[in-house]
């Protein structure tokens, strides 16, 4: 019988023989990247503090359009917290608090909207096997997504594909906007009661008042005003001269409302700064069938040109305007990663841009979109979406979780769970 | 930091790198059971040493420092993977977040090592494959020497059972090179 000691001794020789020792230059290169990362982190933290202080004093946004306060800074040491912290490229995701319950909400998570740092809503669709016939469930949080109260809605969707969009105006007023020929319904009491949102035939609204929100009627491609005061919606009298495919969730810092879409198949964006009375349109370059949408922060506006390729949204170009959209200059011209975009571009307070691609990978740009750096350490997210009270990342790693951020830099997972993007039925 | 200081730190670490790299990788293999990952964490430890303003000039035992850093990197990654699986996915393992890294072809012995208890595997690899004396194994794992010997004895028995056809010497004092 052979000796185990001899076998172990032979294995030691084999193991050492298998170890390849790379040149020291590889290690020095790695060390240089570590030093750069530390310097960037220090500079980012310092710049962030200065920016936050400046913004707090100057308040470049106005009145009800103010950005919500940033959430508490992430703690960099996971062992001293009861939640996991992921940080890369100066962006932080705080994971679920393991000491708190997670609301397990039936159905697929379809929409999340926050109207402030504390108040938010979510919508799930609990469908039968195969996705036909869906019960709609509304969730509400008043503590930033820690605890959720749910209620089943009287409306149903015929299939997962026709689940209505949830549009929140404030802490009480909600709109369920169907994606098929169904009737939009409005609730003015936090989802307790609902009524049809159809305005009188032919009725138009002359302007969007403070407290109102512009929405897109996907069936008619018309811009409508969703009014909190009257809990009603109506077509905006003066429509932008383009086919609208996207409407901003909030007004920009200067009070402008942006819309995006195309003009005869070519991408274009438009803004109204007089509450909808007139529109200034900017035509952009892009392939036919492309359209555009806009992200803003302060005086900076970014127009993103994209097109649909089956289930993916292909990113074609990014335009930057430091003058609230008076003039745009192209920064991103394609030719590298990211190839796709999921949701919206997120301008960060430190001047950088955050983007998620169709695979859920996050990218950060320090050059107004001219170049992007890929994150390798962050969990994969689905779409990034601007809502009235901050940003939402939907479908974290396709598992039915979502995350919220007031500033785009620090995210926290919501303590609520539906089934993920893979989910089609109960 | 002055360029001359950095050059000096790199030179000192370069010597250490050539002298200790393979030994450290073999030791870290005890914790990773994956040679590729063991090499990566040791390289990370050297990179962190180089990124320090004075390298390891102020460290009394540079090799022990590198080993501790590498072990901490392994444990942090392990905790992250475990938490990713348990926190992000909760009770619904609908998608695997962290895919296991590419693994080299393992001989029977490595399969058997991967299959025994972690406590046994660590002492066996550190002692037999990384050639650390029993006392040093105890210092690395922060356990008494007697515990190391006990685990070596029981680990070898477990290993022999998994491998089959091997003789195990009973007296651990005779087989250790302490």
Describe it.
The complex is a heterodimer of chains A (426) and B (178). Chain A is mainly β and 426 residues long. Helices cover 12% and strands 40% of the residues of chain A. In chain A, a hairpin with a 4-residue loop joins strand 14 (222-227) and strand 15. Chain A is globular and about 90 Å long. Residues 59-81 of chain A have low confidence and may be disordered. Chain B is mainly alpha-helical. Chain B contains eight helices and one strand, in the order αααααααβα. Chain B has helices spanning 3-32, 35-51, 62-88, 108-115, 118-129, 134-141, 145-163, 172-175; one strand spanning 166-167. Chain B is elongated. Chains A and B meet through strand 1, helix 1 and helix 2 of A and helix 1, helix 2, helix 3, helix 5 and helix 7 of B. Strand 1 (2-3) of chain A pairs parallel with strand 1 (166-167) of chain B, so a sheet runs across the interface.
Q: What order do the helices and strands come in, and which of them pair?
A:
The complex is a heterodimer of chains A (426) and B (178).
Chain A: E1 2-3, H1 4-18, H2 24-58, E2 85-88, E3 91-94, E4 103-114, E5 120-127, E6 132-141, E7 149-159, E8 165-168, E9 174-177, E10 185-187, E11 195-196, E12 204-205, E13 213-217, E14 222-227, E15 232-236, E16 243-247, E17 257-263, E18 266-272, E19 280-283, E20 291-297, E21 300-309, E22 312-321, E23 329-332, E24 346-347, E25 353-356, E26 362-365, E27 373-374, E28 384-387, E29 390-396, E30 401-405, E31 410-413, E32 416-419
Parallel strand pairs in A: 3-31, 4-32, 12-15
Antiparallel strand pairs in A: 2-3, 4-5, 5-6, 6-7, 8-9, 9-10, 10-11, 13-14, 14-15, 16-17, 17-18, 18-19, 20-21, 21-22, 22-23, 24-25, 25-26, 26-27, 28-29, 29-30, 30-31
Chain B: H1 3-32, H2 35-51, H3 62-88, H4 108-115, H5 118-129, H6 134-141, H7 145-163, E1 166-167, H8 172-175
């Amino acid at each position: 019988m052979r000796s185990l000691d001899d076998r172990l001794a032979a294995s030691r020789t084999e193991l050492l023989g298998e170890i390849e020792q790379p040149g020291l230059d590889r290690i020095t290169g790695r060390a240089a990247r570590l030093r750069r990362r530390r310097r960037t982190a220090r500079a980012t933290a310092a710049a962030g503090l200065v920016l936050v202080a400046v913004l707090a004093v100057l308040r470049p946004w106005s009145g009800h359009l103010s950005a919500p306060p940033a959430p508490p800074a992430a703690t960099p040491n996971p062992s001293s917290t009861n939640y996991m912290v992921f940080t890369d490229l100066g962006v932080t995701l705080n994971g679920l608090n393991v000491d708190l319950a997670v609301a397990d909400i039936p159905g697929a998570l379809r929409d999340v909207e926050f109207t402030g740092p504390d108040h938010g809503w979510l919508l799930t669709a609990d469908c039968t096997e195969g996705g036909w016939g869906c019960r709609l469930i509304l969730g509400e949080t008043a503590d930033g997504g820690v605890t959720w109260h749910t209620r089943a809605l009287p409306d149903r969707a015929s299939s997962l594909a026709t689940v209505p969009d949830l549009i929140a105006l404030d802490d009480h007023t909600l709109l369920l906007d169907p994606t098929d020929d169904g009737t939009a319904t409005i609730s003015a009491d936090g989802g307790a009661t609902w009524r049809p949102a159809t305005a009188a035939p032919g009725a138009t609204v002359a302007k969007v008042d403070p407290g109102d929100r512009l929405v897109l009627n996907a069936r008619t491609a018309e811009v409508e005003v969703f009014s909190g005061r009257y809990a009603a919606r109506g077509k905006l009298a003066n429509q932008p001269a383009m086919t609208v495919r996207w409407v901003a969730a909030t007004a920009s810092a200067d009070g402008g409302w942006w819309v995006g879409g195309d003009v005869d198949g070519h991408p274009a964006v438009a803004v109204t700064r007089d509450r909808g009375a007139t529109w200034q349109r900017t035509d952009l370059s892009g392939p036919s069938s492309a359209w555009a949408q806009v992200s803003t922060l302060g005086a900076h506006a970014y127009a993103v040109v994209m097109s649909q390729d089956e289930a993916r949204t292909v990113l074609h170009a990014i335009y930057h305007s430091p003058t609230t959209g008076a003039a745009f200059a192209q920064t991103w011209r394609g030719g590298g990663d990211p190839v796709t975009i999921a949701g919206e571009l997120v301008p960060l307070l430190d001047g950088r841009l955050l983007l998620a691609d169709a695979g859920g990978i996050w990218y950060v740009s320090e050059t107004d979109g001219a170049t992007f750096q890929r994150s390798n350490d962050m969990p994969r997210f689905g779409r990034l979406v601007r809502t009235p009270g901050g940003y939402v990342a939907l479908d974290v790693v396709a598992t039915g979780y979502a995350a919220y951020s007031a500033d785009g830099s620090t995210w926290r997972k919501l303590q609520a769970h539906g089934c993920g993007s893979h989910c089609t039925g109960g | 930091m002055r360029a001359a200081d950095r050059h000096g730190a790199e030179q000192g670490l370069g010597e250490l790198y050539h002298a200790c790299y393979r030994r450290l990788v073999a030791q870290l293999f005890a914790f990773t059971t994956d040679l590729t990952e063991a090499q990566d964490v040791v390289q990370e430890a050297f990179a962190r040493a180089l990124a320090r303003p004075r390298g390891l000039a102020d460290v009394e035992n540079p090799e022990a420092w590198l080993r501790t850093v590498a072990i901490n990197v392994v444990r942090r990654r392990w905790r992250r993977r475990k938490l990713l699986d348990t926190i992000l996915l909760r009770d619904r393992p609908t998608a695997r977040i962290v895919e296991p890294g590419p693994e080299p072809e393992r001989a029977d012995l490595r399969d058997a090592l991967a299959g025994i208890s972690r406590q046994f595997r660590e002492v066996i690899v550190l002692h037999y494959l990384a050639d650390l004396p029993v006392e040093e194994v105890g210092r690395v794992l922060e356990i008494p020497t007697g515990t190391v010997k006990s685990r070596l004895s029981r680990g070898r028995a477990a290993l022999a059972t998994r491998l089959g056809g091997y003789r195990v010497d009973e007296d651990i004092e005779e087989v250790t090179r302490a």
